[in-house]
Fold this protein.
Amino acid sequence: MNQEPSQEAGQAPTVIEGIDQYLQDGMAVFDENGEKVGDVKMYSTSAGYLMVGSGAFEHEDLYIPFRLIRYIDPQDIFLSAPKDTLASQYKQAPQIHTIVETRLVAGPGGSTTPQTREVQMIQSGYDRGPIELSGVDVGDVADRLAIGMVVYDSNGKRLGDITQYDTTRSLLVVEKGIFKPRDLVVPFSAIKEIHAGVFTVYLSLPEDTLLQQHSMLPADE
């Protein structure tokens, strides 16, 4: 394990420039005392978070904001908080909030027309400020959706088929399973791509985030 550089007392933790050039899945993560926390399972440089597998067999995930990264080298990541703090405060994925905004856009002949967009917002892992993850034109999405389309998450995993969608609330329902179906209610803003020709929809979120924030089980379960 490489040694982290010394840091003067009172100096604020910092992340070296070009962090995206060093980050990769599988990197070992250590707390401020040099105790191993786990390994990086995935990360988002746009949102500023590490997903770190921890606990026995690394089955417990921690969602660590980039602002806690003290130092990073080609093999290891060192954080500025102790392991017990990380385990108690960062077990939950950062919450995604969906907002709807309407703005005027240029139309033909110099006219303007209203455009409704659904936008996903999240607290930045860099500075806690709000940042936009993705945004979609609600009308454009609604025109291209169809019942029965196959839906995949951001990792290419099949989540199920669209059983219904609500253009008023900008939501689609994805159902998986036959005997014990599971429904995911997904906002339009989570849609990354729609391929009408092959009847498929790709989302911008992984399955675990969707399950945590957008799952709905049948009423009798």
Summary: The radius of gyration is 21 Å.
